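DATA SHEET
Item: assembly model
Revision: 1
Owner: S.N.
Input lines:
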Amino acid sequence: MSAADALTQKIRGAIPLSEAMRFTIDHLEPGEIRVSAPLEPNINIHGTGFAGSIYSVAILTGWALCTHILDDAGVDAELVVGGAEISYRAPVTSDLECRCGAADDEREAFLAGVRERGKGRLSLEITVGDLPQARLQATFVAIARD
Amino acid sequence: MSAADALTQKIRGAIPLSEAMRFTIDHLEPGEIRVSAPLEPNINIHGTGFAGSIYSVAILTGWALCTHILDDAGVDAELVVGGAEISYRAPVTSDLECRCGAADDEREAFLAGVRERGKGRLSLEITVGDLPQARLQATFVAIARD
C-alpha cells in the first residue's frame, strides 16, 4: 500500500468526519501533498462547497503533510492545530481539491524544533481549487512524545 | 415547531456534513444563539474534538444566527461566509457547545446594508466550550435577492 493510501486509511478510521467527507490523499511526499473529496457529501444550502467542509478538508491536508514529514524523519510527536485563517474567494462548484507544499528549510526547522526543544511549529498555506477558490493559513504544533 | 427546531431541520436537510455532525440549535433569538453537537461523531485521532468539526459547528452557529436575523426582519438575502479566523486553546473533551450573540446596533447596521445598498456584513465571535476551548471570528455577507 502506498504512503498516501495508508495515511488516508488511518485518518478515515480515526476521524468520522473525514469518512463522511470522503477525504482522499492522492499524492504524498514530504515536500508536497494533494488531496481530494467529492462535492456531493460536502455541499451547502446553495449546492456548492460547504464552508465547513472546505475548511475541514484543507486543515486535514496540512495535518496529513505534517504527519508525513514527522513519519518520514522517524520523529514521534503529537500533532495539533494551533490556529488558522481562511478566506473564501469564489464558490466551489466541483470536487474539492487541496494542495500544500513545504520547502526543505521549513521542514528542517520544524523537525529541529521537535528534536532539540521538544516542540516544533510549521505554518502552511493550503489552497482549495485552481483559482484558488479558498486559501487557508494554518499553524501546526508538534510536541515530542516521551 | 420552534424557530430553533425549524432552522436545525432546514440546515440538516441541506448540508450533509451538519447531519453527520448532529448539529442542533438549542436556543435561537435574533440577539443570541446556542448550538450543540455530541463529541462522538466529531472526534479526532486523539479522541477529542476534531479541529474541522469545531470550526464547522462554529461557522454554522454564526451562519444560523445571521439567517435568523434576516428571517426575523423579513429580509430576503443570500448569505455566504467571507472569511474566518480560529484559535484553538485547549482540547474539547465533551460535547461541542457554541455560543454567539449580536448586539442591537450590529444587527441594525447589517440589515440596513442589505436594505439600502443590497449588501450587508456582520462580523461575529463564536465561542466553543466554557473556557472557551476555541474562538472563531467570522464575517458573513448577505446579498439582497432581486
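QC remark: DSSP finds four helices and six strands in chain A.
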